[in-house]
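In the present case, backbone shapes were mapped to integers, as reproduced here:
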Amino acid sequence: MTSPPRVSRRHALALTAGALFATTPLPRSAALATAGARVPSRGFNLPGWLDRDDGSAPGAATLEKLRQAGFETIRLPVNADLVSSGDPATLRRIQNGIRDLAGLGFSVLLDMHPSGELVAAFRSDPGAAGTRVLQAWTALRVVVADLPADWVYPELLNEPPMERTNWLALRERIAATLRASCPLHTLVWGPARFQGIWEIADTPPLADDNQIAAVHYYAPMAFTHQCESWDTSPLARIANLPFPATRETPVVGQVLAKLRAAGDEEAAKLVEDELSAPWTEARIASDFADVARWSATHGCPVMLNEFGVLNFCVDAESRASWVRAVRKAAEANHVAWTYWELDQGFGFIRSRQSVEGFDGSMIAALLGS
């Protein structure tokens, strides 16, 4: 007679929690599955909640409407500086928030999203900054360990602000810290230093058999970040660029003429440089084909966990066209996705507290055919 397989306490807890959450009425898509684990997709980012002491929680009715619309995943930023002390109330707040989301049927990407202060610390003292991240995960892994492995995905560090070699070493240390308590959870990581889609090419996967590589896509920045308002970048002075576009597109010529008439050669040159190749669906598809080749070569699934267009001064049709093109290129190349973000400058609903003000054209671009 064959003895039953031995199951660890942690594995048993994960199975029990998974069975509990599996009663949700809306099944998750299995379209982006791998031999190792399902890759969460069809999602959005939700900053401004658990990454701040005074963060704003989304309304339950809003979340339910988003789930009914077809969204399946939420990428949830957390702040290393808030969790590194291991404050029980902070950790409990994060755990309860994740449980609420999972109870509605959402997979959760738990994204260690460094504050501006921590990013600056990486520039001045990378070793000390890395230690702060490790301390944060040492505290937060207790939360992750008690949540089901097929619903919660820890992301090691958003846009690692350091050189590639330094990041690869820190990445392994963070992974080991998590694995000490979370042997079954899928680890998510991105390349240094911007997590850009182009940075994955020369980045090896983790030495781990349960992982997802994550990239960001905002190309061309002159289009996706036009009229940005948080620094003195020339992007802040660029407006009304369309998608798709070439240097010969009449509206582009008008934008360039206006910039040069104002003496803004810096912004005009940025637009021209980014238009050295046309902004088209074909260009986007080519970028994602490159990612698919990396994934196949390394046997590592990839997800696009940030992409988006600011809604400050772009026409709605161009915005939706770019979002649809990126989403379709990702899916065609078996790349999962989460949009940046829900209800702020890049968002597609007016308020996380209301079921009104949903942008139908953007939701169709994300979830349509």
